[in-house]
């Protein structure tokens, strides 16, 4: 099939998921057209089945806010008509679902063709930004106008029905991970650079937004560090990073915490880590935690949103209430002091990740797309 994918191209989970989905579909012979303002970060290879349509947003002195959604819809129209796309699959409702609706109407008026639109809801498009009065009417309308709506977890599906007047079924298709890619043997030399004296390695990776509560990560680590020789890697960047760096200095652990910024080779970093910390106030799913589990890292997280759908308390890691840094630290200390338990839980984390392997989820998407297959599509 010829599939158009619109997503954010940045390090966020929705963009990562959309890109990995597109790459996997291209490997299976589908023609995949990415439509976004920048080359997606994980689109770092050549594949003859992958096409990238850059959304250019011309500026003009009148525009304090250049109209991205208009440029996006126009680029969608161009890709649909000139590349004869079978469908559009948009990730993260704002502004992709409404741009897709607009593109669909334009294509219909120009060619008479009705292009199906699939919208995948990811998280804050529903739980935070989308609920804002400024966006809500457009978000509700464009979700309802989608031909198929999917959400990445049961929790997000419930949140969507709770917060929006959705009149259609929402199908849950969970996020996935390419286990083969993440479950590689750790690189010893890399581990030595991070933890030269065999310290335990804790990891956090996110976009450092408020919802991630990155200061809690530092607090948990400071408590662990008091009891156990350990290092913390903070991967990613965002508005809360300076506060987290300040806190690390204030708590006297700055020398054991590395803020390494945005990184592409997450599998190598996750492979050497013992514990992945996810202290978020809310996660619809927590894709980064799943990737860490595939790399045999256990997860210590909050029990917010859809996280319990992947992290099983006492099996693949531990969970605590949002903000309960004392419990999260105790859990970490307990497992880090018990090598046998740590090794067992790492294996269990890996087994849990296998349930969400890319090989299991891609066919579900393909089956969903096949509903919209035209006579001549492959
Ligand atoms: O909503 C966001 O934080 C952005 C979004 C993204 O683009 O990274 O993240 C959401 O989508 C991910 C992929 O489906 C999920 O794994 C994250 O849990 C989810 N984030 C939140 O719900 C906070």
Account of the 3D structure:
There is one protein chain. Helix content is 44%, strand content 17%. The longest helix has 19 residues, at 93-111. It contains 15 helices and 13 strands. The strands form 2 sheets. Strands 3-2-1-4-5-6-7 form a 7-stranded parallel sheet, with helices on both faces. Strands 10-9-8-11-12-13 form a 6-stranded parallel sheet, with helices on both faces. It is globular and about 70 Å long. It has 2 domains: 2-176 and 358-370, Glycogen Phosphorylase B (Rossmann fold, 3-Layer(aba) Sandwich); 179-354, 3-Layer(aba) Sandwich (Rossmann fold). The chain has 378 residues and is of the alpha/beta class. The site of ligand GMT has 19 residues, from helix 1.
Concise account of the structure shown:
It contains 15 helices and 13 strands.
């Amino acid at each position: 099939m010829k599939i158009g994918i619109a997503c954010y191209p940045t390090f966020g989970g929705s963009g990562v998921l959309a890109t990995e989905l597109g790459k996997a579909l291209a490997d299976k012979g589908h023609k995949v057209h990415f439509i976004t303002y920048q080359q997606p970060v994980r689109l770092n290879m050549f594949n003859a089945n992958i096409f990238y349509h850059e959304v250019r947003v011309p500026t003009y002195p009148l525009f304090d806010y250049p109209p991205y959604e208009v440029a996006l819809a126009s680029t969608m129209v161009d890709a649909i008509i000139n590349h004869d796309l079978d469908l559009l699959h948009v990730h993260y409702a704002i502004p992709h679902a409404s741009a897709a609706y607009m593109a669909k109407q334009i294509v219909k008026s120009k060619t008479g063709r009705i292009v199906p639109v699939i919208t995948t809801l990811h998280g804050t498009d529903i739980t935070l930004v989308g609920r804002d009065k400024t966006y809500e009417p457009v978000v509700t309308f464009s979700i309802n106008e989608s031909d198929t709506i999917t959400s990445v977890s049961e929790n997000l599906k419930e949140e969507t029905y709770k917060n929006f007047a959705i009149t259609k079924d929402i199908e849950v298709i969970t996020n996935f991970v390419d286990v083969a890619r993440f479950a590689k043997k750790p690189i010893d030399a890399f581990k030595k650079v991070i933890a030269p004296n065999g310290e335990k390695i804790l990891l956090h990776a996110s976009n450092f937004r408020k919802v991630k509560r990155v200061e809690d990560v530092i607090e948990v680590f400071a408590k662990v560090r008091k009891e156990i020789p350990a290092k913390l890697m903070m991967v990613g960047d965002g508005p809360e990073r300076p506060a987290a760096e300040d806190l690390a200095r204030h708590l006297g652990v700055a020398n054991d915490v590395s803020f390494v910024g945005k990184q592409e080779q997450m599998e190598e970093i996750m492979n050497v880590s013992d514990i992945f910390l996810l202290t978020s106030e809310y996660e619809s799913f927590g894709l980064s935690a799943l990737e860490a589990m595939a790399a045999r890292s256990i997860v210590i997280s909050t029990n917010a949103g859809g996280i319990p759908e992947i992290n099983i308390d006492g099996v693949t890691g531990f969970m605590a209430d949002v903000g309960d840094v004392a419990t999260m630290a105790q859990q970490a200390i307990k497992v880090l002091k018990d090598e046998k338990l740590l090794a067992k839980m790492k294996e269990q984390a890996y087994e849990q990740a296998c349930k969400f392997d890319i090989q299991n989820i891609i066919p579900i998407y393909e089956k969903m797309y096949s509903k919209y297959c035209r006579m001549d599509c492959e």
